[in-house]
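We read letters as residues; the fold follows as tokens. Both lines appear below.
***
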Amino acid sequence: MKRWVLLIFIAGFFNSWAQEKNVGILTGAVLDEQNKALGGATVQLLSFRDTFNSKTVLTGANGDFEMNNIPFGFYKLKISYTGLQTVVLDSIYFRMERFDFNLNDIILKPNEASGLDVVIVYAEKPLIQSKDGNITFNAGESALSAGSNASDLLANVPLISKDPSGKIMVRGKSPKILIDDKPVELNLEQLQDLLESMPGSSIEKIEVLTNPPPQYAGEEGGVINIVTRKGTVGINGRVSVYAGTRGEEGGNISLQYRKQGLTFSMHAGAGYNIYVGNGYYSRIYTNNSALQSVNHYRNDNLRPNGRASVNYDVNKYHNLNFVLQYNQNHFNNFNNLEYIASNANGEITRLFDRTIHNKGVNYSPDLTLSYTAKTRRAGEAFQVISSFNRSDNTSSREFYEEYFNPDHSASGKDSTQRQVMNNYYTGKNIRLNYDLPFDNKKTFISLGSYYNTSRSDMNSDASFLNTSSLSWDALEALTNHFLYYQHITNMRGSIRQLFGEDFNISTGLAAEKTSLRFNLFKSNSIDKNAYWNYLPFARLSKNWNKMYSLSLSYRRTIRRPGVNEMNPTIDSSDQYNIRYGNLGLKPSLSNNFDLVVGKSKNGAYSNIALGYNQSAEVFSQIRISPQEITWQNISGSREYEISSWNGLSIHQKVKLNMSGRYAYRIYSAYDKENRKFKDGGSLSFNLNGNYNWKDLYSATGSFTYNRYANPQGATRSSLGMNMGFQARLLEKKLVVNLTITDPFLQQENRSWTFGTGFTQENYNSAQTRNFRLTLSYVFSNNGSSKKMAAIKKVFNNQKPAP
């Protein structure tokens, strides 16, 4: 390890020394509309300060070019090719903090009758951008990306938080997840495995669309779109290895190939993680008797994963896309619990230990195919997206209980149980989208439909060890087998009307039918249901001087219960907190009203949003007795919220972003009286900053705090902290990342439940403190391999070869 640190230090020293020469470097690639590399294009760099000072090169066979020994200052770049429009990139600023620019995918279009050049003002990407109330997190600019997975990165994006179960939320609601503009049709477990196995280094940016496009207007939490890296023309890739003090290690490799209209990308990797934690709960009954439990756990996970995609532009009007995703999770978990029951006088009435060993494996393949057709009319497009996914989950849980006397001496009594679960999930989806602009270029319609069908086969066999015969006998109370089918059919239409350049109104309607069925083999019965829902939306958007913006929107959204909420199988891993689902759950419908006001100027932005949400048939996990927890619909609720997200540049090198949300939920009088519900507020806060030094070194810090209210109490979490430090050495081929998580405080969660006849406090703490070192090597053969030799000659005061 010491040799590695010394090598990195030496490489960093020479890298910094070289940059004191005050010269800039420029590389890039030029393509036509069909993504074909343009060899022989003329690239001219012109100085604003000295118009006679210019550099001119021709692009290579792969459309690549490079310039070096560029004095610091402002420049414009002019790219021309016979028969194509000339493109001018304005205001490229070479300086000590940013001396190296890589301009990929400069597209030249056919000449127009006007013969005018296309002028683009070049803008460097900040860590976070905000426009029209939406947020773009440029993961490629974050020092956290190479040392994190997609789930970790999402938690550092403004407006995004995780609820106590780890579910991703946007402004307190569940969003639709897209990858490269295509919906991820996975169940909750598959989605969590996907996000935790997806390396941050494969992500280009994360878009948070609080005002989603028409096809996703019915999603209560909007849309999160994860855009992956596409690479440059030619072959390029990255190899990474990492290790952390929390007990984690792994590696991954990614490869991209681009030529003309064909793009192939591949990723494969594996990660091993250890999670350790502890907790307790204390339950006090109205008669002053009590139950206390203390637990310690360790979870081991091995996650192999892979992803391959092919994107092919048949021509500029037709595109084909293929994505194959595979995730696997081998888990081996241990949990030890101690239970102490006492009477009103504080005397111990029951004392025992329970050890739970849970091991198993999950396999999740996913296939997505899409076709996009465009016409000569700009903006008209037809798209078909189809997907197939499957999940096979097998687990075996063994429970061993040992009973003690009040003085903790052995009583000689024990029991052993086993529960084997096999869950098989299959999902199929097809989605159609059609967008049509009218000839007036002010009216746009969007039509679409999708059909989603899924099947879950869940089988749970439970048994106990008969100590007399030493045989395993069936435990009928915990045995279950059922099939669950869900079919969703959606049809939608919307229209958007422009009233001038800065004002538009959109409105639309979706009609949706949901059908579901349970085949319950244990009771030899069938439970089924079907319902229609109509989901309208409307949005008004106004901008002033490209600086101020206002958005007023209404959406009716739906949240459907899934198999996890309706699963009748009894989970008795904690016999004093028995959990099961509810077959009778109804969907929850909400009317959401939002007003967003924003300002953006010179890279700084500020937004404030006011919201009112009226929900009916809200379903939530409720403790119906001191020992039982299930899902129930409540009569309804009203929620008032205020949120804000802001960003500013304190210095050219330092940028800060901050977001916060407070929501106060009010329950019905019936729920307060009969279920003892309490009104309460939820709070989330995120602060992150980015520091760049000489374009080679960067640091990112993020701080989060969340407090969630639930109908029977509140859950409070401690402050979370992430820091990332990145160094790009050896001409940016070697990337070193140090990621630090919770260096001062471990993650803690504390909750209170106020039920009929009891009060309960829960506490858990996880070993989240971690120092992770990631080493990545970036390679390519797209012409930039000549770059190192050219730069070395510059730094040795030699003129580079043409």
Observations:
- The longest helix spans residues 2-18.
- The first strand starts at residue 23 and ends at 32.
- The mean pLDDT is 85.
- Residues 134 and 209 are 5 Å apart (CA to CA).
